[in-house]
Write a structure and sequence with these properties.
By secondary structure, this protein is of the alpha/beta class. The protein is built from nine helices and 13 strands.
């Protein structure tokens, strides 16, 4: 499958000066969402000299990526573990403060709907967005509305939009943020969870960082990028982990032993174990413009 699509400018801030960091090693074949693909060209990690965000060159064309997402079946990833069991205490605490009775909540890239379950239990009205139609019956059986895209929502207003493990997949981050701003009510919040490529472990690992091993992960916005937005105000930037499991002592011990084994074998550090949180929980508030 051809993946020679390249950006000559930063896909986040459109700045011309971008610098090469290194080549990324995917498995061959590699899994894109839940579908195995064979990529002809090797991916590369680049960094913008203006907003300090990073992104991947040699990616799949947006149309092909969307088709793969729509054909994918993430049902094997759905778990009986609840959102509050899976996510870290700080993530659960922060969302508990803003989700509740009467809130209109939209979750983009909702997959199995565990975040929507968490929200609905607190009284929110819930809608999930996911390209895969396979999720529709699953979500609706739990009382959530489902739509295939943001465009299909029209002008409906939401108090809260969440996008967990999503923004790193997007070809048009600025367009996504603009659409979210349009859908949010005045003072509404956009809450995102994504890997932080500027955390200590990622800076050490560079192009070998574990979060880059997924071909779906193509853009990594920096804090500077979010601080410069005009349609949103950066309210909170909270360091955290993708899941509570990364904080468990036995899991961290296993990671440490794996790290020592890799070091003995002369293999590169992948960012695991991470001595500091390697994700960010990001709160953006719709600006009054």
């Amino acid at each position: 499958m051809r993946n020679d699509v390249r950006w000559s400018r930063c896909p986040l801030c459109d700045f011309l000066r971008i610098s090469y960091i290194g080549g990324i090693a995917y498995e061959k074949p590699t899994q894109f969402s839940s579908i195995l693909v064979h990529l002809e060209n090797d991916p590369e990690l680049w960094r913008c000299e203006n907003c300090h965000s990073s992104f991947v060159q040699n990616v799949l064309p947006p149309g092909i990526a969307r088709e793969l997402y729509s054909q994918g079946d993430s049902t094997n990833r759905w778990s009986t573990v609840t959102f509050e069991q899976h996510k870290t205490p700080e993530i659960v605490a922060e969302l508990s403060q803003i989700l509740g009775e009467g809130k209109q909540h939209l979750d983009v890239g909702c997959s199995g709907g565990s975040l929507l379950d968490f929200s609905k239990k607190r009284g929110s009205s819930t809608v999930g967005v996911d390209y895969s139609s396979i999720t529709r019956e699953h979500l609706e059986s739990k009382g959530h509305a489902w739509v295939p895209s943001l465009e299909s929502l029209g002008g409906q207003g939401f108090d809260i939009i969440t996008a967990f493990d999503l923004i790193e997949h997007l070809y048009d981050v600025r367009g996504f943020l603009q659409e979210c701003c349009h859908l949010l009510r005045p003072g509404g919040r956009l809450v995102m969870l994504t890997g932080n490529i500027d955390c200590q472990s990622a800076r050490i690992a560079r192009e070998h960082w574990w979060y880059l091993s997924y071909p779906e992960h193509i853009v990594f916005p920096s804090r500077v990028f979010f601080e410069r937005l005009t349609n949103f105000k950066l309210e909170k930037w909270i360091p955290t982990y993708a899941s509570s499991g990364y904080r468990h002592p036995l899991y961290r011990l296993r990671l440490l032993l794996g790290f020592l084994k890799r070091k003995v074998q002369g293999k590169k550090y992948t960012g695991l174990p991470s001595w500091v949180p390697d994700h960010s929980l990001i709160f953006l508030t719709k600006a009054n413009v």
